[in-house]
């Protein structure tokens, strides 16, 4: 309802002027739809890959363990979103610079922002894991109640380690998609389907570290593949642009 108010009231003049703009040779079905449906399918598969963890834990090991995992993962995934937002807000700049054939500037900006967002994520996760460690050491009743609602510090560290390749995979995927095409499904779909199988059995066993191990096993090689894919496409388009300028 709030977003509808923004669109229909506060920012209505902005959206109204879009109708008066000439589309030129732009065609949504040709230029946007092939990218959108691929991203849509990958997003659904990604959601379903993480979905079984809490229900399986709840069903096989009770609400306490499921709740502790759910609370911990909710906080960590929120920190992941904060770090990704740092990169996401600069996505239009990457596409604009590439469209203007200033690819070297786009690459430099991407590297700078990825390093910054990854450092931000590592710092936030370190603060969270350090806070969990401190809370577990304090003998007060309130800290004991808090610690009972989260996983152990060691388990939190494993999940924190798994979030780094997840973040980097998101970064490479976003940068490749900023060029208005999406070959990422070749990596993303096998990655998340494999993750769904591994985390299902890990959750069923009740070994929460195994869930973090599964994420590390799946996302680390997938991140490396996307990194190489990004580099290959960058060189490919640079070569095409050089050939066209001759």
H/E series, N to C? HHHHHHHHHHHH
Number of strands: 0
Overall geometry: globular
The low-confidence runs, each spanning 5 or more residues with pLDDT under 50, are none
**Count of DSSP-assigned helices:** 12
What structural class do you assign from the helix and strand content?
mainly alpha
Strand percentage lies at: under 5%
Rg estimate, integer Å: 21 Å
Helix content: over 70%
Ends: how far apart?
A: 54 Å
Largest sheet: none
Mean pLDDT: 88
Oligomer category: single chain
Structural topology:
Elements: H1 2-10, H2 12-19, H3 28-31, H4 33-50, H5 53-61, H6 63-88, H7 91-99, H8 103-137, H9 141-147, H10 153-177, H11 185-205, H12 208-245
Kindly describe this structure.
- The protein is mainly α and 246 residues long.
- 85% of the residues lie in helices and 0% in strands.
- The protein has helices at residues 2-10, 12-19, 28-31, 33-50, 53-61, 63-88, 91-99, 103-137, 141-147, 153-177, 185-205, 208-245.
- Helix 10 (153-177) runs parallel beside helix 12 (208-245).
- It is globular and about 70 Å long.
- The chain starts with a helix and ends with a helix.
- The relative contact order is 0.12.
- The mean pLDDT is 88.
